TrEMBL record:
Protein name per the record: L-histidine N(Alpha)-methyltransferase
Residues of the Histidine-specific methyltransferase SAM-dependent domain: 12-309
Organism expressing this protein natively: Halorhodospira neutriphila
Signal peptide start-end: none
Record gene name: egtD
Database matches in Pfam families: Methyltransf_33
Keyword Transferase belongs to the record: yes
Listed SUPFAM superfamilies: S-adenosyl-L-methionine-dependent methyltransferases
Keywords noted in UniProt: Methyltransferase, Transferase
NCBIfam families in alphabetical order: egtD_ergothio
């Protein structure tokens, strides 16, 4: 398939470019193929990974005051919608007229949005398979106020400059009376973070190593996934959890006739998860043309859900 070939080419280039860097890194979006999306769903069900439970609790608890701020008949545009589970907590209270789910994992997305449409016959549902880490074009359905919904602290998986640029694109997408509902993980003690990103059942490790299986199976790369260990730790100076694939021995990854050497103990950085205080996130959002309106946190202040409105005085 020609389209698949073009995708493969872009993937090959991105992988070779990342492996050629020092320190080596791979683009986190490569984690989310169909198997990766399923593994991520399993991570979300692990007791150590506190984000889904806290966020769903907040969305449920504050759906009513949120609905007052947003008003009925809106169009919800969800980024990285995955299984489209979280949005279900909002639908009865919010009564939007339309929903658009955006995700890079196409088949996974389409199946999820089809289930949503079947369960909510009054809601106009659409799916757009896009890579939202780059500028993307979508035509959201419906005429109401557009509200971007970006749960799961996925904003933390972007470097701060890229996060600001993405928030700016969401501001343009939402328009002058638009809103943004976004889940943002808060800084907390290193031990809790360590447990969350190193679940005992090993799903996060499998998710991380899945990237190497993809290189092997999709790109025909010469790589032994078992030659790498999952490594995730909090880097307090950088304010982020870092996930790496740690080379257990001296080895090379072969791709298209090139050899990328790794020494024992060297690691490939695969994803970061930045943690933002309430103030730091508000600052970032303001710089991107958003005006903070409300924020909800759990009792321990582990997780936050912000609602922001387009700042029409500045952008
Ligand atoms: N948005 C999720 C987070 O930052 C993504 C994620 C899940 C993740 N598990 C991870 C990111 C492990 C890095 C490492 O929590």
């Amino acid at each position: 398939m020609a389209e698949g070939g073009a995708r493969d080419e872009a993937l090959r280039r991105a992988v070779a470019e990342g492996l050629g860097r020092r320190p080596p890194r791979l683009d986190p979006k490569l984690l989310y193929d169909e198997r990766g999306s399923r593994l991520f769903e399993a991570i979300c069900a692990q007791p150590e990974y506190y984000i889904p439970e806290l966020e769903m609790g907040l969305l449920e608890e504050f759906a009513a005051p949120l609905a007052e701020l947003v008003g009925p008949g809106s169009t919800l545009v969800e980024l990285g919608s995955g299984a489209s589970r979280k949005v279900r907590l909002l639908l009865e209270a919010l009564r939007p007229s339309a929903y658009l789910g955006i995700d890079i994992s196409c088949r996974f997305l389409e199946a999820s949005v089809a289930r949503l449409a079947a369960d909510y016959p009054w809601l106009r549902c659409e799916a757009a398979c896009r890579d939202y880490s780059a500028p993307f074009a979508v035509e959201p359905p419906g005429e109401g106020r557009r509200v971007a919904f970006f749960p799961g602290s996925s904003i933390g998986n972007f470097e701060p400059g890229a996060a600001r640029a993405l928030l700016q694109r969401l501001r343009a997408l939402a328009g002058a009376d638009g809103g943004l509902l976004i889940g943002v993980d808060l800084p907390k003690d290193a031990a809790t973070l360590h447990r969350a990103y190193n679940d005992a059942a090993g799903y996060t490790a499998a998710f991380n190593r899945n990237l190497l299986r993809r290189l092997r199976d999709e790109l025909g790369a010469g790589v032994d996934p078992d030659g790498f260990a999952h490594l995730a730790y909090y880097n307090p100076a950088a304010g982020r959890v870092e996930m790496h694939l740690l080379s257990r021995r001296e080895q090379a990854i072969e791709l298209d006739g090139r050899r990328f050497r790794l020494s024992a103990g060297e690691s490939i950085h695969t994803e970061s998860s930045y943690k933002y205080t309430l103030g730091a996130f508000r600052r970032l959002a303001r710089e991107a043309g958003w005006r903070p309106r409300r924020v909800w946190t759990d009792a321990r202040e582990w997780f936050s859900v912000h609602y922001l409105e387009a700042d029409t005085s500045r952008a």
